Amino acid sequence: MLNTQDGLDVYKRLVRYYYNGFLNFVLNDEDISALTWSKQQELLQSIVHCSLIKKYPVNNEFSRLYFKKLISCLEKAGQEVHDELYIGLCNIMNNTSDDNLFRYRHHIIGNDFNNIITIKETKNMVVNGTTGMKTWEAAFMLVDWALCNQGVFRDKTVFELGSGVGFTGIVISKFCKPREMILSDCHDDVLKMISDNIEINFPNMTVKEVNNCKSFVNEKHCLGTMNLDWNNDNNMENIALKKPPDIIIGADIVYDPSLLLPLCNVIQDFLQSNNNIEIYIASVIRNEATFETFLSILDTKGLTYHKLQQEESVFVEWDNTIQRCLLKIKMLS
Predict the structure, then answer these.
(1) Which residues form the FAM86 N-terminal domain (predicted)?
(2) How far apart are alpha carbons 310 and 319 in whole angstroms?
(3) What is the rounded CA–CA span in Å between residue 203 and residue 282?
């Protein structure tokens, strides 16, 4: 069990599983015994009657499998099953509308159920030629590291490369208190998804749009979205920033061999505009040759790096058994 689950009773763990779309849970005898009628009622309040879930529902097929598995666990152990669990399963099974391409996932930060980030994303790995419309594992790793090192980002301007659905930038903006956060991508559908997710998590922001850039502003936060194509030779001219950012981040952006050189060019361009920029890149290493090529290109660009350690999850769950790397990159002195 991951650290974020330590100390949570079975009710809270089951809520977390439901919000995160996690079905591979196991309930032991102690868990089943703890799921009394009143605890099941609490669970129902959090996953059926919750206003957040009603507004941003989880995937219908997942809900069906979740309720079915939970009821089966209770029945096999001879535990009394709350009537509303059966009713909930029947309602889900009677819902004949097809699940659309997108779903909502609700990420509880730490063990505080008042701190929830809701993300709209796709169920598929690739949509309309882009992989940027779902949250990938390195994003959770980078977010967890950022939450453990909030002072790095406080009062800074942070620029994210390849923001995808915006999970990383939204969490850092909400909890690490940067002065400004800019989330970038090169795909219009992805940028629209980022904007949707900003609006979900910061519902009272004022929105402005200038030259394909959107700004979301309130008294505490300033988030922007920006189209940035790494293959464009005039990237730095197209980045509408008053001054270079203090920090650049990226999660799961080192995977396509054809994009490694353009990515390193962008990093180099930023550092040439301000060689004090701190750059943090989190990667799941799916192909060692691809990752080594990335490191080699950094070397040829006169960039140095060192690996940061994040051994286990603290605030956000991620798989610490995967091969991964979190790099801090800078320009050689």
Answers:
(1) 41-91
(2) 11
(3) 29
Same domain, 71 and 158: no
For 163, how many CA atoms within 13 A lie in the half-sphere containing its CB? 37
DSSP states of 287-323 as a string?
-HHHHHHHHHHHHHTTEEEEEEP--S-SSS---TTS-
DSSP output for 101-167? SEEEEEEE-TT-TT-EEEEEEESSS-BTTBSTTS--HHHHHHHHHHHHTGGGTTT-EEEEES-TTSH
Contact 250, 182 (CB under 8 A): no
Residue 263's alpha-carbon distances to 209, 282, 286, 311, 324, in angstroms, are 26, 14, 18, 27, 19
Domain that holds residue 19: 3-108
Separation of alpha carbons 214 and 202, rounded Å: 14
Strand partners, 67: none
CATH number at residue 317: 3.40.50.150
Residue with tokens 């009272």: 204
Q: Within this chain, do residues 141 and 69 fall inside the same structural domain, yes or no?
A: no
**9-44 pLDDT, tens digit each:** 899 999 999 998 889 999 999 999 999 999 999 999
Residue whose token pair is 């981040």: 249
Do 132 and 162 form a contact (C-beta atoms < 8 A)?
yes
- Phi/psi of residue 82, nearest 5 degrees: -60, 135
CA 98 to chain centre: 25
Look at the chain and report how many structural domains it folds into: 2
